Amino acid sequence: MQFKFFDFQFKPTLMGTVITLICIPVFIKLGFWQYNKAMLKQSIQAEYNKSALNGALDLVGHIQALEALQYQKVKVFGEYATKYQILIDNRIENDQAGFHVITPFKIQNSNRYVLVNRGWIKGKDKHTDIPAFNTPKGGQEIEGMVWVPSKKIFTLEDKTQSNPSSQNWQLVWQNLDMDKYEKSAQIDVLPIIIKLDPQSNAGGFVRNWQVPVERIMTNLGYAYQWFGFAFAALAIYIYMSCKRINKQI
User: 194 and 80: one domain?
Assistant: First the structure.
């Protein structure tokens, strides 16, 4: 394929054409992927701001529509039950390694439980040593943000544990795998997590929760970068394919 335009001739190479036809769609797809992530996080921010203005919802009154509570602030009464408590490993806070403490919370006047992420605690110098921490006893009011855990988790952990007792319960987990937890713990647990509010006094630790929307501008920056790569690929293709015609005098 070739054609003339004023003093230039457009004559692309087969290799250049193939590479350009591959690169441009890939760059555009990656750009839209980042852009859609930014828009999703923006909608999350809107929901989070709305829930902050409206105050905490009663969890018990919304148990039939839990997924709709994602990123909403809720409150619930009950008490901690530490038998099936877990620590999520390799959580970083201020460049220090530690754990997130996840404790089941028995809902008042119910046999159902909800998991509460009480925050971050620092690990020991020896990684296999478990740090000591306290859990308040008696009735508590939990208030915090609802998080619906992803079911798409890559892990090398053994998922075959079943019918555990208090003597062999696996305390340290690499990820919060709700499918594994529901099969392992002998309690009726809701498929959500409550991230304990930083202002709550109900047995929390370090709770610098990062709302995903804080990276909106980063995702938009990546999107524009990928779109820029697509434009640059097209511009380079055109530039390399155009040759000035040498006119004979």
Answer: yes
